[in-house]
Design goal:
- There is one protein chain.
- The chain is mainly α.
- The chain has 3 helices and no strands.
- The longest helix has 15 residues.
- It is flat.
- The model has no long low-confidence stretch (mean pLDDT 88).
Length: 67
């Protein structure tokens, strides 16, 4: 399991009252210049995904082995 996957799994066990602290630690490592607008590639990927969904060509969340 990757380090990222381990971190994501461990967050589930952090007490709710401690989550703000974890959030601030993670924010420290996130680059400040991240652009949160959709790129042309993002828009194409979204349209493709929505077409797949409309055609029933998706995989159920429960059918994915997340481990």
């Amino acid at each position: 399991m990757t380090v990222k996957a381990q971190l994501l799994n461990m967050v589930e066990f952090v007490p709710e009252k401690e989550l703000p602290i974890i959030l601030e630690v993670v924010r420290h490592f996130v680059p400040s210049g991240i652009d949160d607008t959709a790129s042309p590639d993002d828009i194409i990927a979204h349209k493709t995904a929505m077409q797949d969904y409309a055609l029933g060509e998706t995989i159920s969340h429960n059918d994915i082995d997340w481990n």
